[in-house]
Amino acid sequence: MHLNSSVLRSLVGWKRAILPADTNRCLRNGSKVAEQENTICIYKNTRQTNINTTMPLMSRRRMLATSAAALGGISILQNMNVATSSDDIGDKTPHVNFSLDGKSALVTGAARGIGQAICAALAAAGADVMGLDICAVAAPNLTYPPATPEQLAQTGRMVEGAKRRWIPVNADIRDAKATKKAVDRAVKEFGKLDIVVANAGIQAYGTLANKSDEDWNNVIDINVKGTANTVRAALPHMLSRKYGRIVIISSGQGRHGFKNGSAYSTSKWGLIGLMKSVAWEVGKDGITVNCVEPGLVDTPLTRNPGRWRELIHTAGKEAPENPTEQEAIAASAPSSVMGIPWMQPGEVAPAVVFLCTDAANRVSGACLDAVAGESAKWTG
Ligand SMILES: NC(=O)c1ccc[n+]([C@@H]2O[C@H](COP(=O)([O-])OP(=O)(O)OC[C@H]3O[C@@H](n4cnc5c(N)ncnc54)[C@H](O)[C@@H]3O)[C@@H](O)[C@H]2O)c1
Predict the structure, then answer these.
(1) Cα–Cα distance measured from residue 131 to residue 327, given in angstroms and rounded to the nearest whole number
(2) What is the DSSP letter of 163?
(3) Looking at residue 84, what is its pLDDT?
(4) What is the Å distance from ligand 1's center to 39 Cα?
(5) Each residue of 142-160: pLDDT tens digit?
(6) Contact at 8 Å (CB) between 126 and 164?
């Protein structure tokens, strides 16, 4: 809603109304007017008053009532309780609601690892959860075993153990129709869908020069296209409700280059671009979009000799063909900021929960590095 000229004129008692359409950003009487689509900012004597044009009905009513009073000679700024002369400005109400009671969520890659921990944490915070997983070989040549239907059922037991509703879905996020169907089912059975955590992903190593087309395509298809499919499936519903929380699981390896990991790093870096672009597109529709970047986390994706070899390489050492876990820890722990070889999935999940709560209402377009301090080593 845009304010009309008489309301605005009465609001500030100025000779000339400042309108969104009237883009004559002006300097007058020591005051400056800046304009955004939803917010008109009136700077007066260096203090700033924001009049949000999408404010709730009661506030709008109050504003119209008080603007009428202003026409009658009463100071509108006084009536609106807008600070103009006091130093005590800004709403100090503590927005510390970390509960997800009454919310519903879709989590992909829910059968195990970080996705399983996210499902359990969302449920512990109060949300009903739909957990989607392929529960089968996602791509050939991975150095770790596939997730199973039994693992997805275990996630369900964790959610139901928190007394929350659980819906399991067996699907591949590369299939856009399947992700859409999952969202439609969540909306139907939960009544709405508040939260989407796009977590499913794979990791494969190899130099760019030697990587097969198939290996490259699988990583990009699942991690980028599959994640975009998930977000795209949920957006129409969230846009219609003017509410949504989207969290994309990127990686610390999307924040810096990684030797022998170009496909994975490209895909996870790309997700940050996806997140920031969508956050901008839907920012005025009550939807926040953020990334969480886990560091090295103890899951099947990392707890395998192929990943340990890369860990030893990253530490600048020669790796045996089949290193042991102890060799990987010995090589990497000394350079770890917090002195731990890897984090636990349950230590990453709270960062995701936070971004889904009302406490994070004004966090969007952001990267939250849950990397056990490794972000101390990089900028940006
Ligand atoms: N483990 C880590 O150290 C680490 C670090 C940074 C980021 N990540 C990211 O976190 C996410 C979860 O990783 P994880 O370590 O729990 O791995 P994981 O292999 O234990 O779990 C990934 C889950 O995603 C599912 N999945 C894979 N492809 C799918 C597809 N096409 N459709 C539906 N489901 C699919 C798998 O079946 C599996 O259950 C991934 O995106 C990963 O890239 C992991």
Answers:
(1) 35
(2) T
(3) 58
(4) 40
(5) 989 999 999 999 999 999 9
(6) yes
291-322 tens-digit pLDDT: 999 999 999 999 888 889 888 988 888 989 88
Three-state DSSP state, 288: strand
Helix (H/G/I), strand (E/B), else coil: 33: strand
264 is catalytic: yes
CA angle centred on 272, ends 269 and 273, rounded to 5°: 95
Scan for tokens 């969302």, then name that residue. 122
Give the whole-angstrom CA distance, residue 96 versus residue 79. 28
Please state, in angstroms and as integers, the Cα–Cα distance from residue 277 to each residue in 75, 191, 223, 228, following that order. Answer: 42, 28, 17, 12
Residues 6+ apart with CB under 8 A from 21: 2
Asked if residue 300 lies in contact with residue 144, where contact means CB atoms within 8 angstroms, the answer is yes
Cα 269 to Cα 16, 251, 288, distances in angstroms: 48, 8, 19
Q: Is 138 in the pocket of ligand 1 (CB under 6 A)?
A: yes
The CATH class for the domain spanning 104-303+342-377 reads: alpha beta
* CATH 3.40.50.720 domain locations along the chain: 104-303+342-377
Nearest Cα to 185, choosing from 200, 197, 168? 168
Token look-up 């304010």 returns: 3
Cα of 64 to ligand 1 centre, how many Å? 52
Q: How far apart are the first and last CA of the chain?
A: 36
Residue type, 151: Q
